Amino acid sequence: MKAQTGDEKAFYELLEPLQAQLYRIAFVYVQNEEDAVDIFQQSVIRAYEALPKLREPQYFSTWITRIVINCSKTYIEKAKQTDPTDPSELDTYASSNNPDIDEQLDLWEALRRLEEKYKTVLLLRFYQDLTVKEIALILDCPEGTVKTNIRRGLHRLRQQLKGAYIDEWVQSVEAGD
């Protein structure tokens, strides 16, 4: 792989299709746009510096996703608390023409409040559309653990939201397993 030999252009070609999903992962962890951008940038730097050590280049996406998750967790640990989303930002979102925005915001808030292990697997499974096997590779844990954490995470989301739309969402997600 050219990127492993220090070719910056090749590295950014690998990174480009993943940027939005990597940013979203960081954002869900920190709930702050500036911090998510910082985490994303820090992750890119770490990945670029460590790229020559990547043993299996076909897993670049999995590998860089793990870096973003680890950088996000490190950031939270250092901050010891996440900054809540600025209420004025929510007003901006709510004023859009999207009738489902309240449901989406409720879902994101509930997801943010989940334990790390549940939040991470749900993000990777349903927002990044990764398979259980891919998630197990990223998190370096057995597939059974991933499946259990997905089920428990969905159950906790259902408990937090207790609304019809979460039941519909969970049923559609579970049907996709």
Automatic annotation (TrEMBL):
NCBIfam families in the cross-refs: sigma70-ECF
UniProt similarity note: Belongs to the sigma-70 factor family. ECF subfamily.
UniProt protein name: Sigma-70 family RNA polymerase sigma factor
UniProt domain RNA polymerase sigma-70 region: residue ranges: 15-80
Tree of life domain: Bacteria
Residue intervals of the RNA polymerase sigma factor 70 region 4 type domain: 106-157
Keyword set, alphabetical order: Sigma factor, Transcription, Transcription regulation
Keyword Signal: no
The keyword ATP-binding appears for this protein: no
